[in-house]
Amino acid sequence: MKKVVAALLLTTCAGAVYAQQALKPEEMIKYRKAGYSFMAWNMGKIKANLEGTYNKEQVIAAANVVAATANSGMGALFGAGTDKDVGGEKTRVKPEFFKEQDKVKELAMAYIKEANELQKVAATGDAAAVKVQFGKTGESCKACHDKFRKD
């Protein structure tokens, strides 16, 4: 039974890797923009709750999406050919992004850490703590934008 499960797992992983590699550059740009837009929308929902009536469940749901997206492996969507507009998809990534991979990794890991912490803090229901962590998460996101995103 263990061999069957292992074989299925390997087949699934191989299929996922193949599907990812089969993406055209314009598809990678499209999907990463969609992912970041969805994450931004959920950050906006958290911000609205912090500025208005605080709804713990909405904040938890939004923080879960932010963390899940941050941990989803979106870095794979910055493949070859996605450094410029292609196939009708525009990108705002600076060329430096593809040349400074150590800095990209550092900033990405910092964002993932803060997004995961936001998820944990949101689960407590403590609005004041969420506000502090929301700020840290936003700053880590902004750090990458400042370094690697065109206006």
Automatic annotation (TrEMBL):
<dbReference type="Pfam" id="PF01322">
    <property type="entry name" value="Cytochrom_C_2"/>
</dbReference>
<dbReference type="GO" id="GO:0042597">
    <property type="term" value="C:periplasmic space"/>
</dbReference>
<dbReference type="GO" id="GO:0022900">
    <property type="term" value="P:electron transport chain"/>
</dbReference>
<dbReference type="InterPro" id="IPR010980">
    <property type="entry name" value="Cyt_c/b562"/>
</dbReference>
<protein>
    <submittedName>
        <fullName>Cytochrome c</fullName>
    </submittedName>
</protein>
<dbReference type="GO" id="GO:0009055">
    <property type="term" value="F:electron transfer activity"/>
</dbReference>
<dbReference type="InterPro" id="IPR012127">
    <property type="entry name" value="Cyt_c_prime"/>
</dbReference>
<keyword id="KW-0249">Electron transport</keyword>
<dbReference type="InterPro" id="IPR002321">
    <property type="entry name" value="Cyt_c_II"/>
</dbReference>
<keyword id="KW-0813">Transport</keyword>
<keyword id="KW-0732">Signal</keyword>
<feature type="binding site" description="covalent">
    <location>
        <position position="144"/>
    </location>
    <ligand>
        <name>heme c</name>
    </ligand>
</feature>
<dbReference type="GO" id="GO:0020037">
    <property type="term" value="F:heme binding"/>
</dbReference>
<keyword id="KW-0479">Metal-binding</keyword>
<feature type="binding site" description="axial binding residue">
    <location>
        <position position="145"/>
    </location>
    <ligand>
        <name>heme c</name>
    </ligand>
</feature>
<dbReference type="InterPro" id="IPR015984">
    <property type="entry name" value="Cyt_c_prime_subgr"/>
</dbReference>
<feature type="signal peptide">
    <location>
        <begin position="1"/>
        <end position="19"/>
    </location>
</feature>
<dbReference type="GO" id="GO:0005506">
    <property type="term" value="F:iron ion binding"/>
</dbReference>
<keyword id="KW-0408">Iron</keyword>
<keyword id="KW-0349">Heme</keyword>
<feature type="binding site" description="covalent">
    <location>
        <position position="141"/>
    </location>
    <ligand>
        <name>heme c</name>
    </ligand>
</feature>
